[in-house]
Request: fold
Amino acid sequence: MKKSSKELLGARIKELRKAKKLSQEQLSEKVGIDPKHLSRIEVGRGFPSLDTLEKLATALAVELKDFFEFAHSTKNKKELRESLCSLANEADEEKLRLAVKILRALVR
Reply:
């Protein structure tokens, strides 16, 4: 089942919060919202206002656009392969060589 925009946004906020090693309580305190409201946002049952999104971005030291970069979490294996091929087609030879080295290191 496809996730709603609210669920995707909430999951992305949670992902960014955890990357900063912050609890919901810590982040909600920095932003000035109730921890229950942040919890509802993270599970997709609530939607933050633009003002709250801006405060979250500041508290997490990210840009607003970073909240909407969740396509990576919704792609299946086929789509991921297609994305890799598309990126490879755009890269010059030097970047391709570097990409192959990095991918080889990750796979091994």
User: Anything to note?
Assistant: The two ends are 33 Å apart (CA to CA). The chain has two domains: 5-72, 75-107.
